Amino acid sequence: MASTEAPATPEFDQAVTDLSGILLSSLQALADAGHAEQACRVAGRACAVLRHHHGAEWRSFNTLLHRLARRTGPVGVSG
User: Fold this and answer.
1) How crowded is residue 77: how many other Cβ atoms within 10 Å of its Cβ?
2) Which residues of the chain register pLDDT less than 50?
3) CB distance 45 to 62 below 8 Å
4) Is 53 exposed, middle or buried (0-12, 13-18, 19+ CB in 10 A)?
5) pTM of the entire structure?
6) Among 4, 35, 70, 78, which one has the highest count of C-beta atoms within 10 angstroms of its own C-beta?
7) Would you list the DSSP string of 28-43?
């Protein structure tokens, strides 16, 4: 996984915000297409990357993750 150390520039922060919005929309569409489990996995990975340096974006992915989790089966159960 790439380093989570981010350059402290307004342009970088805006890019993170913009890309997060694109990914959030894509993950919602993936879940709406019947792939909530995969969307949750990717949202969880995004949370891990954003957690320490981009709190607002982390909260957005965390919210999506918890909302979509209701559409999945029990954690750790293979079907």
Assistant:
1) 7
2) 1
3) no
4) middle
5) 0.82
6) 35
7) HHHHHTT-HHHHHHHH
